[in-house]
UniProtKB/TrEMBL annotation:
One of its GO terms (molecular function) is ATP binding. It catalyses: a medium-chain fatty acid + ATP + CoA = a medium-chain fatty acyl-CoA + AMP + diphosphate. One of its GO terms (biological process) is fatty acid biosynthetic process. Keywords: ATP-binding, Fatty acid metabolism, Ligase, Lipid metabolism, Nucleotide-binding. This is medium-chain acyl-CoA ligase. Coiled coil: none annotated. The keyword Metal-binding does not apply. One of its GO terms (cellular component) is mitochondrial matrix. Its EC number is 6.2.1.2. The gene is Acsm3_1.
């Protein structure tokens, strides 16, 4: 393996070899796999135990130069808190569907990992969706929660009256909005 930022990384041939061994039944597949608990939490524990240096698991920089950097331990902890927000404040359960109409902000990835952790189906949508697109996705998916930014909330709200399955609305960003749960506040 080669070294990258002081960490051992698997070469492509090693990764392919590992998957080939699974396909040939030489390695046992786990009955259940959850990326958040099986991979992220494992790497976070390695950081915590000093077996691996704390390198960014997530590093985001916007066009203004603002940075958000989370280690594996930080991303693991934040995703657990976010999964609790989805389960408790939003009332979601394993198998429920969530639609996220967000630009690519750090919370997008945080919510994605939190949904994996909680067994909630994450349905991503871009900020370019029209009201008709959002309405169709809400009805077809039977989503129980919608997540959007404070700037996109007015457009999303225009289609919510026709959504019979929606139980909660979660907002991401700097501002708050009446009738919406605020992710930052809940965290």
């Amino acid at each position: 393996s080669r070294t990258f930022h002081g960490n051992n990384r698997l070469l492509t041939s090693q990764i392919v070899s590992y998957y080939e061994s699974i396909n040939q039944c030489k390695k046992e597949l786990p009955e259940y796999f959850n990326f958040a608990s099986d991979i992220l939490d494992e790497w976070a524990q390695m950081e915590k135990d000093g077996k691996k240096p704390a390198n960014p698991a997530f590093w985001w920089i916007n066009e203004g130069g603002e940075e958000v950097k989370w280690s594996f331990e930080e991303l693991g902890s934040l995703s657990k808190k976010t999964a609790n927000v989805l389960s408790e404040a939003c009332g979601l359960q394993r198998g429920d569907r969530v639609i996220a109409v967000l630009p690519r902000v750090p919370e997008w990835w945080l919510l994605s990992v939190a949904c994996m952790r909680a067994g909630i189906v994450f349905i991503p949508g871009t900020s370019q969706l029209t009201a008709k697109d959002i309405s169709y996705r809400l009805q077809a998916s039977k989503a129980k929660c919608i997540i959007t930014s404070d700037t996109l909330a007015p457009a999303v709200e225009s289609v919510l009256p026709g959504s019979q399955f929606l139980k909660s609305k979660l907002i991401v960003g700097q501002g708050s909005r009446d009738g919406w749960l605020d992710l930052k506040e809940l965290l």
